[in-house]
Amino acid sequence: MVHESPVTIGVVVDANHAFGRGAMRGIEQFAQTRPHWHLEFYGERSVTAGALTHAKPAGVIAHVANQELGDVLRSLQIPVINTSFMLPDGLFPRVGVDNWQIGQYASNHFLERGFQHFAVVGHEGHFYSEEREAGFRCVLQKKDHTCASFYQRSDPRFPMEVTPLNAMRELQQWLSKLPTPVGIFTCRGLWGIQLTEICRLIGRRVPEDVAVVCVDNDEVLCESSRPSLSSITVPLERIGFEAATLLDRVLEGKQLGGLRSHHATAGKGKSRPGNGWSPQIVPKLIPPTGVITRQSSDVFACEDPDVAAALRFIYKHAQRSINVADVLDEVPVPRRILEKKFRFKLDRGIAEQISLVRIERAKFLLASTSFTIAEVATQVGFTNVQYLSRVFRKKAGLTPSAFRHQFCETRVSATD
Known about the structure:
Elements: E1 7-12, H1 18-31, E2 37-42, H2 49-55, E3 59-62, H3 67-76, E4 80-82, E5 95-97, H4 99-112, E6 117-123, H5 127-142, E7 148-152, H6 169-177, E8 182-186, H7 189-202, E9 210-215, H8 219-224, E10 230-233, H9 236-251, E11 255-256, E12 259-260, E13 284-286, E14 290-292, H10 305-317, H11 324-330, H12 335-346, H13 350-368, H14 373-380, H15 385-396, H16 400-405
Helix pairs in contact: 1-9, 4-5, 13-14
């Protein structure tokens, strides 16, 4: 048996937060397939060029959250895979979540619940936040909705601490002037909990007056909020796994999106990456998993009591194979009238709303569980796999298996 020489891989992440811990798990999962890899971990704020130079890593996987860290890593002249979209420039190949889709998930979440007023809390000067806001606004603009905005002052060091409430008087004033009910998307998870606390201070009810959706689904943070926070989930382990996979391909001198690491050949005829390799590779974007609905957005902001009652019934019972007749039994209104109300308020009919809820739940199960396609169909209220596949392809533009493949290429899935 041939034993490969040990290879040191630097990992620069912040293990104090959900993103860093999730990415670390994914990197370690990939490293199980590369016994010769030796992982050296460093904190984002404490890592220095000297420490990395001393360790002599063959490559680095890093969350490059600021220019200073980028400069340190670039000075090493070794392959670096970036899992951050804080900075817009492509210093290194990147693997990360599709921030545009995160924004779209948030806007669709509010639209499905009948909201007519929207706002976003973003981070000034940070690329990830700009992309999330752009995705959020894009969906709203197609529906002729406007969106208010509040921006956290930019800090090039990108501190991870929550800004103290006593320093957020401007946010309180902004929030108090928003029309209600309003759906607010916070581009960082930490701001969600702060927003709910400010609502308590100024007498705004969550979710009745202000519904909040954040990002990353940090369970400790989300469950500690008053009320608990709805959040868009990010496939953190998958990001780490894919970043490690990409670094492995670079170290092996393989083709990457039509580009190749092209450092001078060194020993045994193998191409070794180094200061001649090209980082200009199209980023690998991984879609968000879905929205975990908790108390902060578990509301239907619809002035029409019939539509609101029908929505509550659909969301509560969609997994039971309900149909339009069941909805009409719950909301005793002539079908023609209720259909007209649905199309006026939501721009879709009752049956389409039922399918929409089921498909969104199917997406979450496909992305986050190992259920077979048949089991997913049963869980979300479809009578058989064929029906699920037909509706899923129509709504999502691809089959359930193809959708699942985006999240875990190694997972075995049933045939559509």
